[in-house]
Amino acid sequence: MSAAPLLDTAALRAAGRAPATPFRIRLADDRLVQIERLLRVLPGKRIVGAGTLEGEAALIKLFIAPGSARHWQREVDGLAALQDAALPTPAVLTAAPLAGEGHAVLTAFLAAADPLSALWQRSPADDARLALLAPALALLRRAHAAGLVQSDLHLGNFLASDGQLWMIDGDAVERPQAPGAPLSGAAATANLALLLAQFTPQWDEQAARCLHTYLAAGDGPAVALPQLLHEIERQRAARLADFLAKSGRECTLFQVRRSATRFSAVLRDQADALAPLLADPDAAIAGGRLLKDGRTCTVAQVEIAGRARVVKRYNLKHLGHALSRCWRHTRAWQSWREGHRLRFLGIATPVPLALLEARLGPLRGRAWLVTEHCPGVDLLTHLDPQREPPPAEARALRELFAALHRARISHGDLKATNLLWHDGEVVVIDLDAMQQHDSAASHARAWARDRARLLRNWPAGSALWRWLEANLPPA
């Protein structure tokens, strides 16, 4: 069998997001590292993969950007700080410059390791998730007592292997206090909130139990629940703003393409499958099953790689309509962003897969949105106006409107046909007019309109109308 190609940092930078594996790279001391499988790639900056060093299995982190020594040194120092604090982290096999330029850190490879994020997704019940989170909270308490914070704290930076939870990613480990001193209460609160802000707002009800588990893990900084909840809300808002900004630019999650005549954004893991559709979305609509054909929009169900998708084209009714909209974000853009906002907040809506806009320089024209297809039935059909909703639907309706109200989100066109019952959830669709409000007063006015529009779907005084009137957040 021929040896894997020997590359250097220039070749790896040129390879972008998809360097071919396996490949070898030489350390400055002439030893050869081989990467068999990619785990993460930051194009032109960093490559993380599984491979070997002189036959020994290793997790390999390559720093390939010009001037990468600073990040490499942070990784080395962070891993050393975790080890000095007796926190479980994989042993460093070597940390060395690469031949020519760039740097590498190799750590012991954890066999059959599961990121805590994957275990979390497989355990939907709250009690099961709290049990998974408990050892991570205990490790975080120990880190804080040792004066350490993890500035990129998320479940993916904890690995479960052979009954042990491990902390990884030394690049994000910092020591803001003097060596040997524990974190301040404010710093510990902020770092714990960074972890808990990863979860949906509905999970904030478990914050008190998480804090109890964290505090029970040993001595350390004082953290109080009111300050923790405030910090969770602040950090979640910052994460949401960052995530929505990413939905419109090239990054790990999204593939974005711009030219003088078009703009497209697509979930990166869907880009190849959706490429033919995005090349000619009108042909896809013409070949699909027409769901709606109106003046303002045309909607069709299509099949892509054996999976049902929905394509929605936002039409321009006439020249005046086109001129009035050409300087503004398209309705497809609005739906794209609001769909991702709802998903981030744990509110059910079909996954937005792709956005396409026809442009002429800065001017916007027609636009298309591609989403997953939800096979649910709309609430106008599903609910009997002469009866209160069944228990499952009642619970889902209360949870949905509580979540929207808590986030100050208004829908803008709250017809019952824009709410689908599917798989135990009320799924929200048609997000063209959705808005998250900055002020309580603005949201209150919009919610009053939304509430009135929803109630108009059913006869005033009917059993369902009375139930909604009693259970919806007040106007």
UniProtKB/TrEMBL annotation:
InterPro entries: Kinase-like_dom_sf, Prot_kinase_dom. GO terms for molecular function: ATP binding; protein kinase activity. Residues 285-475 form the Protein kinase domain. SUPFAM superfamilies: Protein kinase-like (PK-like). It comes from the Bacteria. This is Protein kinase domain-containing protein. It comes from Pseudothauera lacus. The lineage of its organism: Bacteria, Pseudomonadati, Pseudomonadota, Betaproteobacteria, Rhodocyclales.
